[in-house]
Amino acid sequence: MIKNALVLLSGGIDSTACAWHLSNQGYHVHGLFVDYGQKAARLEKRAAKSLSKVLGIGLDYVSVKSPANFGAGEIAGRNALLVFAALMTAKLHTGVIALAIHSGTTYYDCSTAFAKSIDRLLAEYTDGRVRLSTPFITWEKKNIVDYYKTSHLPIYLTYSCENGKLPTCGRCLSCRDRRILGC
Q: Regarding the domain delimited by 3-180, which CATH topology (the fold level of the hierarchy) does it fall under?
C-alpha cells in the first residue's frame, strides 16, 4: 500500500529534512510551497524548487493573499494556515500532511497540543483519511541540523532569513539559529 505525504516545503532545513525523512520511511512524498505574503517568499520558493529537484519530489505552489505585511518573528496562525491551505488545495485523498515543527520554541503552533488539535481536525474533515505528521515534534533544532548534515543534504540550497534579505540579515531568529548551529 502506498503511503502518501504532502510536506509543507518552505525551502529551509527543517522542511527539507522532513521530506527526506518521510521518503526514507517509505512515503511517496510531494511538496507544497505556500506564499502567504511573507517577506522571504520569493527566495524561499526558489530554495524549495531547487531542493525538491534534489529530493526527487514534485512541488506545487499556493498563494494566499492578505493585506497584512509579515516580517520576522511569530505569526499567529501561520502553521494552521499552511496545513489548511494544503488540505484545501492538494490532491491528497489519503495520507499525511507533514509539518516540520520541532521542540525548543515557545510558539504555540510548534507545540504538541497544536499538533494534536490540527490532527483531530484533519481527521474529522477527511473521515480519518488524512492526518497530520510531525516527525520532529520531539527533536531540538540541533537534532534536525545534525540529521540534515549526516544525510548529506545540501545546506547551501536552503534559505531561512525571515526578512527576505540576500545576503541574509543575520539578525532574525532563523539567521541567528543558522549561525549558532554552523549552517
A: Rossmann fold (3.40.50)
